[in-house]
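Why does residue order matter? Because the sequence determines the fold. Keep that principle in mind as you read this record.
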Amino acid sequence: MTDISSSGRFDPRFNPAFQPGYDPSVHARPSAPPERTAVPELVEHPMPVMDAEPSAFRTVHPDPGEDQPAPRRFDPYLAGLWALSLVFVAAGLLTIRYIADRMDRLNTTAGTTAFDYNLVLVYTIAAPLLVILGLATATATLFLLASRRR
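Structure:
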């Protein structure tokens, strides 16, 4: 491959000033000054004169044939999500109440087993998670409704 700068030729696709071997004193082309063009004068148009009488306001009713937004339909999946969130929150709160009653019986009854303590431990972990899951489901459905509104 030959060096373009040694042959004195430049790639015609590009400006020679940005190619290797360009010397402005040797390769510069005289450029003509840009032509001066006259700026068109602005023409002022007088404002149209309007009648001084006030116009009457009227109510515009849309034609029945025009496109109108469709009425909102009942979404059974959305209703199911709301019901599921209520079930989760209620189950979590009832489980917390059950844990309190069960702990009272475990401390006062002599016939308790290790299973009873383990069951209370599982309920203690699950109850707050159920409440959080229910609140998260309700929040997600609110975001879903908000995104559909736009």
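The chain has four helices and no strands.
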